[in-house]
Design goal:
The complex is a heterodimer of chains A (706) and B (200). Chain A is mainly alpha-helical and 706 residues long. Chain A is built from 36 helices and no strands. Chain A has helices at residues 4-15, 21-30, 42-51, 60-78, 80-83, 86-89, 103-121, 133-149, 160-174, 178-183, 189-194, 200-219, 225-241, 243-251, 257-265, 274-287, 294-304, 306-311, 314-322, 335-345, 349-360, 365-374, 385-395, 399-403, 407-410, 414-433, 436-451, 454-458, 471-500, 507-529, 543-550, 552-555, 564-580, 639-642, 644-650, 668-673. In chain A, helix 3 runs parallel beside helix 16 (274-287). The longest helix of chain A is centred in the last third of the chain and has 30 residues, at 471-500. The two termini of chain A are 39 Å apart. A six-stranded mixed β-sheet of chain B has the order 2-3-1-4-5-6, sandwiched between helices. In chain B, a hairpin with a 2-residue loop joins strand 2 (33-42) and strand 3 (45-54). The longest helix of chain B is centred in the last third of the chain and has 23 residues, at 148-170. The chains are: A mainly alpha (706), B alpha/beta (200). Chains A and B meet through helix 7, helix 15, helix 19 and helix 36 of A and strand 2, helix 2 and helix 6 of B. Chain B: It is found in: Golgi apparatus membrane. Chain B: Residues 173-200 are annotated as: Disordered. Chain B: Belongs to the small GTPase superfamily. Rab family. Chain B: Keywords: GTP-binding, Lipoprotein, Membrane, Nucleotide-binding, Prenylation.
Chain lengths: 706, 200
């Protein structure tokens, strides 16, 4: 417990940046050791972020009083006889009766639960604080109450104790003896109330419950959420930002849940030293109180050690992942949250390249090929920082306008004009068709959406002359033209079909067809006028884009990120990717000026129109590309559940010296291994081909609780 | 190879004693799984054992049951000072019978043999139980290192013998040749590392 003077100092330190949550967030983001969580009162910051995100500081005492009151009521309800077993004797129940309503029975069951919890609580980390009797009891009671209140969660799970213990530690560390200090007038009554040492248990429970609102899903067993989440992180998120690493981990047969179970369930508590973990939690609670970025934090951690991982075989990689190497200062674990925020806004290969380059100064092989090619004449034979550096130099001029607005990279710029034109056209055409009333609203919506994009459109472009002096540019332009031609062809086809149908049928659908086709034609026109415009992504707008819009407050800190590498790297990565993807979409050689277009208003394009610039984001859809899914049930590890005999018959012969060709690309043993760690097959048996539901991604909805 | 058994019986310490010769009285609960390897000599051959340490909590069985399907050996650990952990051996055994390969080699391990004064499970009881169920049996102490090395050595040898015998039988007497560099014995049944790695 601290002295009143120090507490007062820390109080001032906490709020010197301003009284609002956003002030605290900013202070945590930019102030390092001066962070209000480090120099000030961490528990107060956590309470703000987790318990009172929408309340002003003046309301905190009142809200805290309510939470404390309800905890007292819970204790009275569930801990009465455990704390005062002598009261059981005063009851009229027979202690030996089998009456399920008997408090004796309840107490016996509760004691069993508590014994299970106690076994882990007594095995908390070495810090003597955790092993004080009063703290042990406090942690036990809180976990017990949590389990009583959440019976559907399946009771106590190992790991919860290590989520709770640091919370208790932080709250207790900041607490003050309210009675003593307020009577003496040493501290403001508000301070003593908020930090009251007699309510450490209450406040810890409130914080823990809030964390478990989301983290509870990580412990859920029946649905096997954690395995699915691990799969998503590896096969979707990591693949999207670093295909090479995702493929390598798959090829060496690392199953992500092996290490991710612990990373995620403990919120990285065992991966880093305690103090660093706390700073990481500061950042998580400040910027991601709903734990929606955990997946991307994991991806960021993988990216940080990707070079070592790429060289690692199975054993080495596992040791590395189960004993994560300490990130060297100043890029401590909390910077993984910065990375996650960045990835959220740049959820693609370019984003991955940027982060890899940022921390290692090296470019991934695929990206560096392009970088060295384009940075003539200093061509380097090996992937090196030189090529990257010279590119960086050449694009430096474009940096300042860019860094002043992250929107440019997040939102469609060039597409805006096209869609605006499309909207106008839709009105004209639909008037001819006599269906304008039905869609006027929709078109108005397009226009409104375009307003916000105007600014980005008008911003100065990145220097595109990079490519103009290189023969590569010519072939890229040719490819681009082919793609534009394809788009025109598609539009013409769909319009012709419409005419052929003599406008019979669903007017709304026809209108959509016209709308999309027109937009495409306009887009092609604009692309022809301005050769620097990017062609649309093949993929639907990233899911991250969706969640960005739901978290505008999180977006602002990313302004500080150095985005220069992105500008450079995106071209490299785009080129690398384009060589892998189909020819029709290959022409994405220019800097990423126009990310995937905005969703259309209220409508989905007809399925006949492919590659429309206006694609409604469908959260159910996985990103395109060679995702190493354990595709079908029959191929997967679950095959044995379908037909137990198939796997047995596949075992031939029972033993044979191993050959290194065991690591072939589609190693069947990978499939066989896939059942490791309980890929328990859902009853509908589609685990092999399951799609990603929105709530697993970035919190489009609250995470399901089991 | 997998280590299974109730929470708190000392699985993680058995593993750390065997692979790193370490023991930690305050070792934390295992979350999910841990993994360690060690190479030992059997019959002048180097065998690299991959050993998986699982969380003991019952509710993890949904995860571990699928997991030890791939193991070729299992150390089923109980605590000689806690009868309940011995009683639960039957349940763990059933889990293995239900989910693991039918040829899996199982060794029953009574750990914490240093706690003589607290003994709750008589050695003979466990020995008889093991015999009835065709299990090997040993009592160990990860704390004072008694029998830990022996336990692992025995089960690994047993696995090796089974594997190499099968190898002779099914490959027309072709000499089984464990390879250097970590890929020693190939077992056809699926495992945490399947065909490509290690023996356990």
């Amino acid at each position: 417990m601290r002295s009143p003077a120090e507490t007062k100092l820390r109080w001032e330190e906490t709020f010197k940046h301003g009284p609002r949550i956003s002030d605290l967030q900013r202070a945590i983001k930019f102030n390092g050791q001066e962070s209000p969580c480090v120099a000030g009162l961490r528990s107060l910051c956590w309470k703000g972020f987790l318990l009172f995100p929408d309340a002003s500081a003046e309301e905190w005492p009142q809200l805290l009083r309510q939470l404390r009151g309800s905890y007292d009521a819970l204790c009275e309800q569930h801990l009465k006889y455990i704390r005062h077993p002598e009261q059981l004797a005063t009851l009229s129940f027979d202690p030996l009766a089998d009456d399920p309503d008997s408090p004796w029975i309840t107490v016996r069951k509760d004691e069993a639960i508590r014994a299970e919890i106690q076994q882990d609580v007594s095995r908390l980390p070495d810090d003597p604080f955790y092993h004080r009797e009063v703290i042990q009891n406090m942690i036990l009671d809180i976990l017990f109450l949590y389990c009583k209140l959440n019976p559907s969660a399946g009771g106590y799970r190992q790991g919860m104790h290590e989520l709770l213990a640091p919370i208790v530690y932080v709250v207790a560390q900041d607490s003050v003896n309210a009675k003593e200090f307020s009577i003496d007038g040493l501290l403001d009554p508000i301070i003593t109330e908020l930090l009251d040492s007699s309510h450490v248990e209450h406040d810890s429970f409130a914080l823990f419950s809030k964390v478990m609102d989301r983290a509870g899903a990580f412990y859920e067993v029946e649905q096997n959420t954690i395995v699915e989440k691990s799969k998503y992180i590896h096969e979707v998120a990591l693949l999207k930002v670093d295909q090479e690493l995702a493929n390598h981990l798959r090829n060496i047969e690392i199953l992500p849940q092996i290490f991710l179970i612990r990373w995620i369930r403990l919120l990285f508590g065992r991966e880093f030293p305690f103090e660093q973990t706390m700073v990481l939690w500061d950042a998580i609670f400040a910027f991601d109180p709903n734990l929606e970025m955990i997946d991307l934090i994991c991806v960021a951690m993988l990216l940080r050690i990707r070079w070592t991982l790429l060289e690692a075989d199975y054993s080495v990689a596992l040791q590395l992942l189960l004993k994560y190497p300490a990130p060297p200062p100043p890029h401590g674990p909390h910077t993984f949250v910065d990375d996650a925020v960045y990835l959220q806004n740049h959820f693609d290969a370019a984003g991955g390249v940027a982060l890899i380059a940022k921390y290692s100064g090296r470019l991934p092989a695929a990206a560096s090929v392009t970088a060295t090619t384009t940075s003539t004449p200093s061509r380097s034979s090996t992937p090196s920082f030189q090529g990257f550096g010279s590119l960086r130099q050449r694009t430096l001029g474009a940096r300042s306008p860019l860094s002043s607005t992250t929107k440019l990279l997040q939102q469609p710029g060039g597409v805006e004009a096209i869609l605006r034109g499309a909207a106008k056209n839709v009105i004209e055409k639909s008037e001819k068709l006599g269906i304008n009333d039905a869609v006027r609203d929709a078109v108005g919506e397009i226009r409104r959406n375009m307003q916000g994009l105007q600014e980005a459109r008008n911003l100065p472009r990145i220097n595109r002359s990079l490519f103009s002096d290189h023969p590569l540019a010519v072939s890229m332009l040719e490819r681009r033209n082919r793609q534009l031609a394809t788009m025109l062809e598609e539009s013409i086809t769909s319009l012709k079909q419409l005419v052929a149908s003599d406008f019979e049928g669903d007017k709304q659908k026809q209108l959509e067809t016209v709308e999309v086709a027109t937009a495409k034609i306009q887009y092609v026109k604009a692309c022809l006028e301005d050769s620097t415009l990017d062609l649309p992504e093949e993929e639907p707008p990233t899911l991250a884009t969706l969640s960005i819009s739901t978290h505008p407050e999180i977006r602002s800190p990313t302004v500080a990120l150095d985005i220069t590498p992105v500008v450079v790297a995106s071209s490299a990565a785009e080129e690398a990717r384009s060589r892998l993807s189909s020819p029709a979409s290959s022409d994405r050689n220019k800097q990423k000026q126009t990310p995937p277009p905005a969703p259309p208003p209220e409508s989905e394009p007809p399925p006949s129109v492919l590659q429309t610039p206006a694609t409604s984001p469908t959260p159910k859809e996985r990103p395109n590309g060679p995702i190493p899914t354990r595709s079908t049930l029959a191929q997967s590890s679950f095959a044995w559940m379908l037909e137990p005999d198939t796997t047995i018959s596949a075992r031939s012969p029972p033993s044979r010296p191993l050959s290194s060709s065991g690591k072939k690309k589609h190693n069947p043993s990978r499939e066989k291994n896939a059942f490791l760690f309980g890929e328990v097959v859902p009853s509908d048996g589609i685990a092999g081909e399951r799609t990603v539901s929105p709530d697993e991604i970035f919190g489009l909805q609250p995470i399901r609780k089991g | 190879m997998v280590l299974i058994g109730d929470s708190g019986v000392g699985k993680s310490n058995l593993l750390s004693r065997f692979t790193r010769n370490e023991f930690n009285l305050d070792s934390k609960s295992t979350i999910g799984v841990e993994f360690a390897t060690r190479s030992i000599q059997v019959d002048n051959k180097t065998i690299k054992a991959q050993i998986w340490d699982t969380a003991g909590q019952e509710r993890y069985r949904a995860i571990t049951s699928a997991y030890y399907r791939g193991a070729v050996g299992a150390l089923l650990v109980y605590d000689i000072s806690k009868n309940i952990t011995y009683e639960n051996v039957t349940r763990w055994l059933k889990e293995l019978r239900d989910h693991a390969d039918s040829n899996i080699v199982i060794m029953l391990v009574g750990n914490k043999s240093d706690l003589r004064h607290l003994r709750a499970v008589p050695t003979d009881d466990a020995k008889n139980f093991a015999a009835e169920n065709h299990l090997s049996f040993i009592e160990t102490s990860a704390l004072d290192a008694t029998n830990v090395e022996l336990a692992f050595q025995n089960i690994l040898t047993e696995i090796y013998n089974i594997v190499s015998t099968k190898s002779f039988a099914e490959e027309d007497g072709k000499k089984f040749d464990p390879r250097e560099g970590g890929t020693n014995i190939t077992l056809s049944q699926e495992g945490p590392k399947g065909e490509s790695k290690g023996c356990c």
